[in-house]
């Protein structure tokens, strides 16, 4: 299968999942989207294995790494800044703003912790430490 | 700008004008990577460098030059 055909099938499956999920949620049937998404993901993975062309290489991974790093920096700084603003504005008088601010601060902290753990893991895996 | 230049375009011409797609298949990368390499926008890993050199049947330094 060519990459072009794969992309076409991927779009069709994605549209199918979207339409099914939307219709199911609108109809109030919450159970249908779960197997549909699961089956759709398996179908995409299966079709991807049938592609003979090289879809991703080291340059793609470099782009993904740079994009992920930038996304993480923006997300952490954005959440931390918005969280501080919300906590400052609320002054403890608006529980909704306080909760949202706290949630954003905790999420920013969680992201930083996960990033640190992942960094340490790959740092050890790829060598370069003093052990 | 990277200080590592390459002669991929010239080597493709010398090897019977093989297409970027064919070179990508031989080297095990995407055509977009070959385009980026020819435009000097991307410097490959040593592994990919060797694969490209091997695809042309030349040494690494015949393909890539380090400008100090």
Task: For the structure shown, list the relevant keywords.
heterodimer, A: 131 residues, mainly alpha, B: 68 residues, two-stranded antiparallel sheet, 5 helices, 56% helix, globular
In percent, how much strand structure appears in the residues of chain B?
5-15%
Please provide the ordered H/E string of secondary-structure elements of chain B: EHHHHHE
Q: Assign a percent range to the helix content of chain B.
A: 55-70%
Structural class assignment of chain A:
mainly alpha
Shape descriptor of chain B: globular
Overall body shape of chain A = flat
Radius of gyration of chain A: 21 Å
Largest sheet of chain B: 2 strands, antiparallel
**Proportion of residues in extended strands of chain A:** under 5%
Tally of alpha and pi helices of chain A: 4
How many individual β-strands of chain B? 2
- Largest Cβ-defined interface: A-B, 8 and 13 residues
**Overall average residue pLDDT of chain B:** 93
Largest sheet strand order of chain B: 1-2
Number of strands of chain A: 0
Q: What's the mean pLDDT score of chain A?
A: 91
Compose a concise summary of this entry.
The complex is a heterodimer of chains A (131) and B (68). Chain A has 131 residues and is mainly α. Chain A has 4 helices and no strands.
């Amino acid at each position: 299968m060519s990459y072009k055909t794969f992309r076409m099938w991927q779009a069709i499956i994605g549209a199918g999942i979207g339409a099914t999920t939307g219709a199911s949620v609108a109809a109030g049937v919450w159970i249908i989207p779960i197997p549909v998404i699961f089956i759709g993901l398996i179908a995409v993975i299966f079709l991807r294995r049938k592609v003979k062309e090289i879809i991703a290489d080291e340059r793609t991974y470099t782009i993904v790494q740079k994009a992920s790093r930038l996304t993480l920096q923006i997300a952490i700084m954005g959440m931390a800044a918005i969280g501080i603003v919300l906590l400052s504005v609320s002054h403890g008088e608006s529980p909704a703003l306080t909760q949202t601010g706290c949630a954003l601060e905790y999420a920013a902290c969680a992201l930083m912790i996960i990033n640190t753990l992942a960094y340490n893991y790959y740092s050890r895996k790829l060598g370069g430490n003093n052990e | 700008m990277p200080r590592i230049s390459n002669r991929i375009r010239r080597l493709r011409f010398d090897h019977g004008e093989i297409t970027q797609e064919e070179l990508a298949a031989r080297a095990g990368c995407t055509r977009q990577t070959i385009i980026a390499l020819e435009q000097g926008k991307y410097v490959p890993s040593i592994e990919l460098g060797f694969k490209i050199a091997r695809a042309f049947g030349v040494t690494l330094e015949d393909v890539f030059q380090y400008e100090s």
